[in-house]
Request: fold
Amino acid sequence: MAKQVVTIDGLQDLDKALSSLPHSVQKKVARDVLRESAEPMARAARQLAPRDEYHLYDSIDVSTRLNSRQRSLHREEASSSFQEMFVGTNNPAGIQQEFGNERHGAQPFMRPAWDAEKKPTLSRIANSLWFHIEKAARRLARKK
Reply:
């Protein structure tokens, strides 16, 4: 399974503003924004997932954690300051549904959700990050 990389140009100002915050605040802001922005993609995947197959609908979530099998397959390429969020199922049957097997054809639910939501999700992340960075900066200024 090939890893898909998405590159966004023109976010230098956003990165500069985020890095002006303390590290712990950066992580919280990034985690909150990523979770909030990815939830519509998870909802789309839940709508597309077969409801009668292996409880896939219930297992689709947005999280910073992977199960042990997913962790073994995931190679961390970024520095420790980089925040990752995962959208998908922790149910091994999800791979069989998504790609099919010798007993049944593919019934994709994650890929169509990604295709439909990738641009809106990236837009939500950029817009929401500005809002949360400004909010955190005001909160820090009040504390000082």
Q: What stands out?
A: The two ends are 49 Å apart (CA to CA). The chain has one domain: 19-143. The chain has a mean pLDDT of 84.
